[in-house]
């Protein structure tokens, strides 16, 4: 186990009807807020009415900024910053999923900063201050409701970049699993893949002696996998939705990564996919991760075997541990396929003509390599994209 | 899963040498603090010197209040409250284990309260304010470093009572596993039993559909059990100490109890044991818990069988699930014995002549019963104490 510094102060308000508490929770921070959301889905489902009624009841004035798209854009973030400044807004309420929350976080650090908010995403500098952010969550996926991450796409060049700092962790996350009943199956499945990928990025580590977090990762993965099967069949199953929703938060609030160094290459590679093709992040991960596993598993057969045995219930082959590993990778890919996700680029309708471009743009996080479990060069990234075809 | 509201905002600063950061962390809260600790052990180990050096370096003035005993007393809490008020102290630093931290928490809510601090423990009222508390942890056991609990013993009648409120969660917990190397084996073992009991109290629930938290509980239990074997043999094994220390925090910060109703009868029964006999809390739990299990297991054979199979690797008996259950209970008791703890009252040198008194004093938490998994009457409590003889 390596040294760590961990804080996850987001208040989780979990269960049916909790969205009606949003006014009272928000009032602890400000009487004038930015209400940030995506398209019209929260109006169709009636969530918008519930949220605004609760805000009205608490006497909170809200200025609306809808229009967040999947893979949220820098342009809208800048508009949000302008609105907050002009109206002296003290709090941002994100009603939606990871994209809306990530956009709200970007606005929250942009408001008190004199420079260009993209500086925080390009790695030029780190934010020192932020407006408080609260969340009403509508999809179990990104874990942004309690995470220190925000990922924004810069339309100028279609760069997709992340920021990771504790000050952007939301103050509260209101999580009612019933709000996820109406998600289209593909979005539910993409969310599930995103959750699984967040855990796997932390699971595949070179840090020795990480028994507790290994087991916590395995526990969370097994739960998500088991309940994924249920919600794909029965989208209004409250308990299965609840298991996945809470798992989605724990998958990315960093608890599962305490004391260990995660990998994160698959995320960086996927960012290039979804920056160009605007594919759902989780679906992109369902394509990239199994290819990454095939490409790197020889680096640590034991770890991949443990994953196969403990997560996928593969019987350990004493004659050929590699056989165990390959069965684990096969089950990972099959699982993604079984919930309706593409598991190859071709399956997602992505042609093979821009693989070099994606490899060339992929953010190298340590000098000229990306990933920690195995440090991948740009050639390795290209090979993984080819394997994913 | 039932509705829940969960917040665990304590910053965890984990790893070797982290105690040297205590000055800089404390400075975020106050320049004048109460330094609260137990006996002379932190002076013998050199921890006292490191902490005071770090405080000095940060320019922090500290007034010392040593003398916290196991099962911390109300008398010292009142002295702490007086010192804080007289000296206008803004922060309490607890250097020690659960007793020191619980005492610090009691002082922290007592200072701004006009009435008797025991009001919070007797259930008369709840605290609305508190001084901030920070921790340098020296034993993995109570989980008080990030929990919302504090347990205090009132010498007037030897009542041992708990307070559970979020405002007493510490601001930070500095956790260096190496600080636990010098613990006597009996204290290490008692701490391990305490951690295991915190998880088991949450595990044995009537709440259905709690797969994620079940699995997280099992993951944490398995890790503690595996590493307990290692530290009892090799007390200076950093990694095993680290696994147990981090598990001890997660066992009681409430994460494992989210969305489920815990039992807590064994804790209430044990409080009577340790209030009268001043036995280590964990050792008392090692005696009470297996007896409780034997007394209540028929209430839910499946849950006890799952515990046996997933935690203790008992092979499930399809012919007799009860056989599986009994083997799980047997292994629980054997485990406590194997790390050097008593598993019967007699084994702890506790005579059988005051069982009725303990049953009569046991705090009934729901009207005239205690516990949630099975609601125990005073007669049940007496029967469990008799089983524990």
Q: How would you describe this protein?
A:
The structure is a homodimer of 389-residue chains. Chain A has helices at residues 22-26, 41-44, 47-57, 74-87, 98-110, 118-122, 185-203, 211-233, 238-250, 265-277, 281-296, 301-312, 321-338, 355-361, 378-387, and strands at residues 4-14, 32-37, 61-65, 91-96, 133-137, 149-154, 159-164, 172-175. Chain A has 389 residues and is an alpha/beta fold. Chain A folds into two domains: 11-179, Rossmann fold (3-Layer(aba) Sandwich), CATH 3.40.50.1970; 183-387, Dehydroquinate synthase-like - alpha domain (Dehydroquinate synthase-like, alpha domain). In chain A, helix 8 (211-233) crosses helix 12, helix 11 (281-296) crosses helix 15 and helix 12 crosses helix 13 (321-338). Chain A is globular and about 70 Å long. Chain A starts with a strand and ends with a helix. The interface between A and B is large, with 39 and 39 residues. Strand 1 of chain A pairs antiparallel with strand 1 of chain B.
């Amino acid at each position: 186990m390596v040294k760590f510094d961990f804080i996850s102060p987001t208040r989780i308000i979990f269960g049916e009807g909790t969205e009606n508490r949003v006014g009272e929770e928000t009032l602890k921070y400000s009487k004038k807020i930015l209400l940030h959301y995506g398209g019209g889905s929260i109006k169709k489902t009636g969530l918008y009415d519930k949220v605004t009624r609760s805000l009205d009841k608490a006497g909170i004035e809200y200025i609306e900024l809808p229009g967040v798209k999947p893979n949220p854009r820098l342009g809208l973030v800048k508009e949000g910053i302008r609105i907050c400044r002009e109206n002296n807004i003290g709090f941002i309420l994100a009603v939606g999923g990871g994209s809306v929350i990530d956009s709200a976080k970007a606005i929250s650090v942009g408001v008190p900063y004199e420079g260009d908010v993209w500086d925080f995403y390009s790695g030029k500098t780190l934010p020192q201050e932020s407006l408080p952010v609260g969340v009403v969550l509508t999809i179990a996926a990104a874990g942004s409701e309690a995470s220190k991450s925000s990922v924004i796409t810069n339309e100028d060049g279609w760069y997709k970049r992340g920021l990771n700092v504790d000050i952007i962790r939301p103050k509260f996350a209101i999580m009612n699993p019933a709000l996820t009943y109406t998600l289209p199956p593909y979005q539910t499945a993409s969310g599930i893949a995103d959750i699984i990928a967040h855990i796997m990025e932390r699971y595949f580590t070179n840090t020795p002696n990480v028994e507790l977090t290994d087991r916590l990762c395995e526990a969370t993965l097994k739960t998500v996998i088991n309940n994924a099967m249920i919600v794909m069949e029965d989208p209004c199953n409250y308990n299965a939705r609840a298991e996945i929703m809470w798992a989605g938060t724990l998958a990315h609030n960093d608890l599962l990564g305490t004391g260990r160094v995660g990998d994160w290459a698959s995320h960086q590679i996927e960012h290039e996919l979804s920056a160009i093709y605007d594919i759902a992040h989780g679906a992109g991960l369902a394509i990239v991760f199994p290819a990454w596993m095939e490409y790197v598993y020889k680096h640590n057969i034991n770890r991949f075997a443990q994953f196969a045995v403990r997560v996928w219930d593969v019987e350990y082959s004493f004659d050929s541990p590699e056989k165990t590993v390959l069965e684990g990778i096969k089950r990972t890919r099959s699982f993604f396929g079984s919930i309706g996700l593409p598991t190859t680029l071709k399956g997602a309708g992505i042609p093979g003509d821009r693989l070099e471009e994606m490899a060339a743009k992929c953010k190298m996080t340590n000098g000229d390599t990306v990933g920690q479990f195995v440090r991948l060069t740009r050639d390795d990234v290209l090979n993984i994209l080819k394997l994913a075809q």
